[in-house]
Amino acid sequence: MWSTAQAARLYPIQRKEFLENLDKVIKRSDYPALDVFICTADPTKEPPMSVVNTALSVMAYDYPTEKLSVYVSDDGGSELTLFAFMEAAKFAAHWLPFCRENNIVQRSPEAYFESNCSSSSQTFKIKTMYEIMKMKVKHVVERGKISDDHVTSDEERKAFNQWTHKCTSQNHPTVIQILLANNKNMDVSRNFMPNLIYVSREKSKTSHHRFKAGALNVLLRVSAVMTNAPIILTVDCDMYSNDPQTPLRVLCYYWDPEIRSKYSYIQFPQHFQGINKSDIYACQLKRMYQIQPMGLDGLGGPDNAGTNCFFSRRAFFGGPSSFVSPEIPELSPLHVIDKSIQSPEVLALAYRVAGCNYENKTSWGYKIGFRYGSLVEDYFTGYQLHCEGWMSMFCNPDRPSFLGHAPISLVDMLNQQKRWVVGVYEVAFSKFSPMTYGIKRLGLLMTLLYSQYAFWPIWSIPITTYAFLPQLALINQVCVFPKVSEPWFLLYIFLFLGAYWQDFFDFVSANGTFPMWWNDQRIWTIRGLTCFCFGSLEFLLKSLGISTHGFSLTNKVVDDEQSKRYDQEIFDFGVPSPMFVPLTTAALINLVSFTLGLPQVFKGNNWEGLLIQMFIAGFGIVNCWPIYEAMVLRKDNGKLPAKITLTAAFLTWALYMVASFIF
Ligand SMILES: O=c1ccn([C@@H]2O[C@H](COP(=O)(O)OP(=O)(O)O[C@H]3O[C@H](CO)[C@@H](O)[C@H](O)[C@H]3O)[C@@H](O)[C@H]2O)c(=O)[nH]1
Ligand SMILES: [Mn+2]
């Protein structure tokens, strides 16, 4: 595991773009078109207003509006989301010129109004407008239906009539709604606005919808029919643009034909907003999102992170020198659009390609488009593109190009990463495993790095071993490590200090602080005992055909009490998740073994032999501190449920008995 990570240290790259030179090379009128894909899947878990903010922030890009189209995929198939977007389209007519005329850099309205924005009367007016929209959308979402007085035109009525009482999120026809067209709709300053298109693909119980990858493939096809831009940006609904010049940065690379013919995507990192000071859940994932991609960039390119990524459309249709043509010519990246997006033929074809049976007997998801077969469709797609011979790039400007929200409760974070575990195993143990398939196509170094992710969850084996074995042995006075006086002792000290120092150094060089790093290593041990174990088990059960699993959305709604605890840096256990059981058991075993070991060591009973074990148990205790607090000291709703504590106490006793029997 350690050696796979070393490849990322060999050729790290840090890039810089010189936007001021762009004008010397390209005229604004020659900019290539850009299609933006935004995914959302459930109006209750992903508040529509947050999706609206994502969309508004990219619609306000510093980019010619006639070249810009924003497609929103609503996998929840909800008229509430459509309603929110109808409101957003109206608000955009004010927001876009406001940003342009006042040179606003923060173009997500929510983030802008939260920051110390100017207090001019114009700002006040637009803020009021935003608040009214927000209230209206919130009200509609809370009630769960759209009352007649919210529908203002026949066109809107017609759109909502597509929902019948039979529609559910898993079973409904396609709805495609052009909310803004860049040759028709003008803002209040009489400039055209970008295209804004709502897409809810057809879903039926009888055909697999392939989660996010399926949604993105529908957008790939619908956008091919409507605008067919050569550049595609994918953004999740929990992110927003934090820099309106981001597409210009992309052009700095993309405009070079040499680069265009070799590179499939340019990945921007995920930076998060609202993380507490020492990032108690290590949600920034600094290593995965910021440190490693720089290293990968020097070897062949970063893996894909699902969001904040600019793709070349061509990359979805075979390798750089082996074009795979789609089943109908209208979907080809080479196809030239000669009709307006509102024309009936275009719409009819768009409806057809969004149908749930359209992909049957085609190459979509296998040779074309985003790839199916893994819950981490982003990792898998990026990997497949690299295997086909594409390269990719990592671009990390000083001002974060995108900002997003990370889960702020422990269980949300663990559930999210449990899904990732299942996803990476789906790749690791498939015919596409980096060890067998990747190695022939990627070379050794890239294979090592892809394997590092594919086999990421096997960390649970050493972590679980270290959490229990030395401690149980300590309780029974059995030494499992060399004595202080033996030369091997030094090896352990060297490995421990070396690994921790290297880890710390990496972290701090990526602008991390000591408390952040401390939490990062704590969460690493927690993962090993929770989501890594449970994800592996889930994957095993699935492989044996005993259970199935889906894409469990990461929760994006938080209650006030929870976010207050988060701001105070207090761990949130709250729900009785089975994942907490091994964690709490480990916490108790470490405590028990340390307490029982201490008097023995003081008495001088074999202290030389037990020192490392005492150290590990002590280290475990320090790391488990929030768990003890949550177990006994706290009274709030985030404390550890009594059920978990009791189960863990029983297991601790059982382990103790078994161990004394064995040792
Ligand atoms: O059936 C689905 C499921 C999810 N989504 C969308 O996928 C995105 C990511 O979902 P989220 O619940 O936020 O998952 P995260 O774990 O936070 O996302 C990370 O991991 C995913 C892979 O598991 C990647 O797709 C994401 O880009 C990456 O940020 C969201 O916009 C969802 O709306 C869909 O469109 N359809
Ligand atoms: Mn997310």
TrEMBL record:
Keyword Glycosyltransferase assigned: yes
Active site location: 75, 378
Transmembrane annotation, as ranges: 453-475, 487-504, 524-541, 579-598, 610-628, 640-662
Topology in the lipid bilayer: Multi-pass membrane protein
A biological-process GO annotation: cellulose biosynthetic process
Residues noted as binding UDP-alpha-D-glucose in the record, renumbered to the chain: 45-46, 75
InterPro entries: Cellulose_synth (IPR005150), Nucleotide-diphossugar_trans (IPR029044)
Keyword vocabulary terms for this entry: Cell wall biogenesis/degradation, Glycosyltransferase, Golgi apparatus, Membrane, Transferase, Transmembrane, Transmembrane helix
GO MF term set: cellulose synthase (UDP-forming) activity
PANTHER family in alphabetical order: X-BOX TRANSCRIPTION FACTOR-RELATED
Similarity-based family: Belongs to the glycosyltransferase 2 family. Plant cellulose synthase-like G subfamily.
Protein name, per record: Cellulose synthase-like protein G3
Species of origin: Hevea brasiliensis (Para rubber tree)
